[in-house]
Amino acid sequence: MAPVGRTLLILALLIAGYGIFASLYGVRTGRREWVDSGRRAVYSLAGVTTVAWVILEAAFLRSDFSFNVVAAHSSTTTPTFYKLAAPWSSQEGSLLLWVWLMSLWSSLILFLTRHRVREIAPYATAVLLGFGAFFTSLAAFFANPFATSANPPSEGAGLDPLLLHPSMMIHPPMLYSGYTLMTVPFAFAVGALITGRLGSEWLSVTRRFALAGWLFLGVGIVLGARWSYTELGWGGYWAWDPVENAALMPWLCITAFIHSMMIQEKRGMLKVWNVSLVLASGTLAILGTFLVRSGILDSIHAFGASTLGVPFVILLAVMISGGIGLVLWRREQLRSDAQIDSLLSREAAFLFQNLVLVAMVFVIFWVTFFPLISQAITGTKVSVGPPAFRPFIVPLALVLVALAGIGPIIAWRRVTAANLRRNFLIPVLAGISCTVILIAVGGVDDRPFALAMFGLGTFVLASVAQELWRGVGARRAMTHELPPVALVSLVRRNRRRYGGYVVHAGIALLLIGVAASSSFQHSRNVTLMPGQSTSVDGYKIAYVRPTVAATSQKLSFGAVLRVSKGGHPVTTLRTTRGFYPSQDPTQGPIGRFFNGEADSNVGLRAGLTRDIWTVVNPDLTPLQSRISQGDALFTAAIKKTESASLHLPPASAQTAMSQLWQLRDEAIVGIASRYVTHPWPINFLFIVDPLVTWIWLGTLVVILGGLIALWPVPRLVRRRAKAAAPARTAPAPVAPVREPA
Amino acid sequence: MDVVVVVVVLFVVVLVISAPLRRARQTDAAWTGELAELEAAREAKYREIRDAELDHRTGKLSDADYEALDSVLRAEAVVILRQLDDVKERAATAPAPASGR
Amino acid sequence: MDPSRKRAIRLTVALTAALILATALIYTSFTAGRDELTAGQLLTRAQPGRSYLLAGTVLTGSVSRQGDVLDFRVRDPKRNVSVPVRYTGIVPDPFAAGRGVVVTVEEPRVDASTFIGEQNSLTTKCPSKYQAAAGASAT
């Protein structure tokens, strides 16, 4: 089936090429049938890439090692769920995934808008197909997922053990969905610029896709953070790694866009911002995709230099110069319809928020790419890293949170004293009270930024609560419903607004969690014998006993720990370090089981107020002499048995070898058990981290808000609104409302 | 087997893509596009009217600003409704679009 | 104040703020930054007391562990030189001989042969594509 896959890729490329031609021809000559044909090319691209994807998945599922990617990333022992996810752990598979997802979203939006935005859609189609053609040609000619080898191995290399975690498998498709969804608003913005139709039509058709891209990318980012925290042995969730930054930058841009879009819809302002933000988000999304594959920056995700670097740079150059050119060309049409009257107004608050977000993107971009910039200028790669981010990002984040609270409650046009009093009094009081209480409680004075975040976060939560309260009151004044009913119908009828407010609340919780867990973390790196204990942040952690387990997959050495506070037991933690057998031929038959890849199994007790986290790093040197002895013994035994088997019938040879392997396994278990029977001091890392759970909870709230905002409005609600609205008197006589057929 | 799959896919793709071209040059109900745009504009306008009212009730629009905005929005809504009526009338009285299939 | 004057003032303020931010950023980058050097470059260029980022691959057979302390040599990917490093702190899971690593080192004044790795600064790259590596520098 592999040649079929490759052929489909070529076919996909041809379809994309045709579609670009058909759309452009159709729109230039006014012949709709060509435009429709171009649109159908997108549907066909989706269909063809779906078939290709199915072929690839099928190859993984049946462990067809003639496919190079299957041999390199899967094995017969890989669990089925991970076999399905393994395609995107490869470069080739992820390129195909990118095209597939992008063609699905493109088909969706073109279908939904098939009767609308008729001038813009064909250009958007051409742009989307352009992306499709780019990624398909990379897959077809540079990194072919359907490449085969004549002599397939009998067993594959398997997935890296670090990837055998559910959230690690969902994280890439989430990120990819986010990135690919951003190409849709990008394409429509380009279409809008080319046609000069820069009113709110292009915004309204792409709004949902921008929001969906924002949601998926955001969830992808948090999933990566959570995986890092629960799976990796360093106890953190964010390292300002270039690849993490690469996903964060387009997300910040699209956040800015979602807000400034509202200003354009309401007051015809910020048109240049909007179009620039969308173009920037799309470009940063492609940049993010590029960063992960090119190896140009030192990153834990750096996958080695690849041949894909040059094509990506060219694409980015085209996107950037094209974008700037288009905006300059259309700058007349992008003039605002109105001006900002006062700096104390909702419009101004949105603009400030945009500025802060763009500043954050700029800072992250600069510091991330600084090694390359400095290399270009001075010849030496200078790396800056996390210490450079904090002085800038923290204050900017504080301003952002403040604006997140101010935005929902500040008046349009200009703020008056009365209006300030009415809207700001309670939330500001709430924020101040929280700050004062925390100072009084103590322990926070030396962390002013964290304290500020707590106060501002409370301000945001209070402002959201106030808005919900007032909204419910307004609704009840009209309908006299019970409060819970009123709340539900209020949110249902104003999904965008209240979905957005819920997101703000979620972000406040998340950032409170981030502030607390980064500023008030206590950690201790200590070596203990069984029976010994140490104390971290008031918790006594006692190393109870060592544990060892042996399976054909790995050897696990670990510990059981008991945590108590003030004499009262809190929890029991179990942590292990797994050693996977190495394929290295220089390792002996015993040694390779002890000296291969290792990964940590974190012992974690999460709680609402704090997490207790631990990993163990057992040093296996005390076993080394026995291991060497075993190596010598078994190497000799294997040689002997192998040469003896030459003179034996196959069945007996088989039995002799399998008996030998059994003995070897017993030897391994015997050696490993010494870890329990004759324990020695081992190294632990303990971390007590407050409010980490708030980060995950905050994310769930954000997801809820995002879904509320995204959810399509049911027709019934629209009908009732139609009847109610014109019923109120207007200066001009109103024609009676007729329901559409 | 492989060849069969490719041929089938190719056939379906060509069918799908060429369908609009094979139809006789349809006098595309030009009004389908207009209708869709106007209906979307109407929904957006209604939402703006509701939004403005909610903003007023929750203290983000002063009375004066709200009155002004509300009448402007309603007038714009009326314009859209009138245009919608026009389009629907035209659609009802126009000859059926020539269809080739 | 007429509108165009207002706008001019606002624009000036905004641009000034942007300029200040940019300057601060550039200043921080050059002062807080550390040169990333290969083993060969480190041997020739390192000045005592300054810290550098040493990038290279772990020399096979050079890894040894004594309790908390990890000793290894980092090879220059292009030349046949290697540099000894003594490191304490978190060791990323994929760390092994032959893997690409980056570690912050400072040249010690006393014993000029072994570089001291800054605690928790070791990061390891995974050699093959798409097998995400573990560990990162602590923030």
Q: Please report the number of helical segments of chain C.
A: 2
CATH topology of the largest domain in chain C: OB fold (Dihydrolipoamide Acetyltransferase, E2P)
For the secondary structure, the number of strands of chain C is 8
Main sheet specs of chain C: 5 strands, mixed, barrel
Question: What's the count of strands of chain B?
Answer: 0
How are the strands of the biggest sheet of chain C laid out side by side? 2-4-5-7-6
- Work out the radius of gyration of chain B: 23 Å
Computed structural class of chain C: alpha+beta
**What is the typical, i.e. mean, pLDDT of chain C?**
76
Just name the CATH architecture of the largest domain in chain C: Beta Barrel
State the shape of chain C: elongated
- Average pLDDT of chain B works out at 82
The first-level CATH class of the largest domain in chain C is given as Mainly Beta
Largest interface between protein chains, with number of residues from each side: A-C, 66 and 51 residues
Number of domains of chain C: 2
Q: What Rg of chain C, in angstroms, do the CA atoms define?
A: 21 Å
Report the portion of residues of chain C in β strands. Answer: 25-35%
| Multimerization status | heterotrimer
Taken in chain order, the helices and strands of chain B follow as: HHH
